[in-house]
Amino acid sequence: MNVTGHGDEGIQLQIEGWSQIVSVELRGYAGAPDLGKMAENNTTDADGQVDKLMERILSRNNLNMAFKRVKANKGAGGVDGMQVDELLPYLKQHGEEITQKLRDGKFKPNPVRRVEIPKEEKGSVRKLGIPTVVDRWVQQAVAQELAPIFETQFHEWSYGFRPKRSAHDALKQCQRNVDDGYVYAVDMDLEKFFDTVCQSKLSQVLSRTIDDGRVISLISKYQRAGVVEDGMFARTEVGVAQGGNLSPLLSNVMLNELDWELDRRGHRFVRYADDLMIFCKSRRSAERTLANIIPFIEKKLFLKVNRDKTGVAHVSKVKFLGYGFYRYKEKCRLRVHPKSVAKMKQKIRVLTARSNGWSNEYRAMKITQFMRGWVNYFKLADMKRLLMETDEWVRRKIRAVYWKQWKRVRTRYKMIAKYGLPEWKVHELANCRKGVWRAALMLNSVLTNKEIVSLGFITMTDYYLKVA
Fold first, then answer.
1. Could you give the CA distance from residue 144 to residue 99 in angstroms, rounded to a whole number?
2. What is the model's pTM?
3. Could you give the CA distance from residue 54 to residue 146 in angstroms, rounded to a whole number?
């Protein structure tokens, strides 16, 4: 197997002036690249000469930008074990050879490292493919040039991995559709989308826009690079590795075919990555739409529709991007779907577990980070009552953590006495023989809501009222 290694001649890359690259630390998240920033910052002329695309991909500025984004996104290493911090020294040594191989069409990507992430459905996993850091850098450079070219072709009702578009924009479009009377939805589920993409079909779609055969060939090589799972190599004759820097863009390119077919048929729809909802005015119309669009998806795009999870329902019965819908005074409103609530509570249970050995300061920091992120995502929903009930439940769990830490009676007596309670009350609480959960309820006279906030914990309700 050909894997990257220091001094390995198998993967070689050339960049002009690598000695001038400055190691930078940028804020970012590990995962898919920010295609929005690519399209906004890249000056590629979408109507320019795409037959010279590889030269622009290998330009010094583009490669430098790709390096910075890979470094900012961090993430785990691939099959060769190289980490992001090792990328710059490696490219200084092998950069010129690798870029020359890319120019000549002789570059060979490494297989991806298979990682399985548990999904919400019990026993179900999402298969990710983690490329090597060198391959991530090459993919990032390609994606930065392709994104602005294809952005001009994407449909206005496609929202995933696109500049200045977000899940919130997709949800607002859903509301507009419902307000216009489209109250029934085809909730479409594409079965294992990334694992079932037809590679030849994708190459065909890409070739309509890209004339540089070296770029098409490179993308095809990444699709066929294979995977390593439990030390065993396996070929990949179908699918696109979910986890690579090119994957979000390639998924949009493929599903853009479906977008424009729906548009040609006059349908209202909203798509975010592979999550798709088609809106209709009646159940019969929605059922007819579903029956008519499945043949196009399966016979023209060669994708699979999960019939067990695909169906027709009133919008009040569907879940989209973690949200649910309801109508109030003839307007479509958003709520947090019950499954999202259950998932949030399970996460809080993990963060407030009394056996993880965390310090109280670290626990407060982790809980605060999660709550802020969760509220920021679900801030479009009407959820004040939900958050008030959740805050009460979380405070009781925090009190339970402290009660468990105060194991001995004398420790409880000492800690409770600090809060200025009468002697008889301190004695009563310190000698409480109730279970932890019951004792936590009694402890609210000591660890009051105000006191818990002073310990570094926030309330979801207060933060929601601030950001919503």
1. 16
2. 0.83
3. 10
* Nearest by Cα to 127 from 200, 46, 236, 40: 236
Q: Are 244 and 131 in contact (CB under 8 A)?
A: yes
CB 236: neighbour CB atoms within 10 A? 18
Contacts 24+ apart (CB under 8 A), 307-311: 309/187, 309/189, 309/191, 310/186, 310/187, 310/188, 310/189, 311/186, 311/187
If phi over 0 gives left and psi between -120 and 50 gives alpha, with beta otherwise, what is residue 302?
A: left
Q: What does the alpha-carbon distance between residue 121 and residue 166 come to, in Å, rounded to a whole number?
A: 25
b/e code 15-46 from CB counts within 10 Å (16+ = b): beebeebeeeeeebeeebbbbbbbbeebebee
Per-residue CA distances from 54 to 103, 124, 185, 201 (Å):
7, 39, 42, 22
Residue in the structure block whose two tokens are 């906030």 = 453
**What's the pLDDT tens digit per position in 125-171?**
788 889 999 999 999 999 999 999 999 999 999 999 999 999 999 99
Helix (H) or strand (E) holding 406: none
Phi/psi at 345 (nearest 5 deg)? -65, -35
Cα-Cα-Cα-Cα torsion 45, 47, 48, 51, nearest 10 degrees, comes to: 120
Amino acid at 301: L
Amino acid letter, 341: V
**C-alpha–C-alpha distance, residues 129 and 135, integer Å:** 12
Express each pLDDT in 57-113 by its tens digit. 999 999 999 999 999 988 888 999 999 999 999 999 998 899 999 999 999 999 999
Query: Which is nearest to 294 in space by CA: 280, 281, 278?
Result: 278
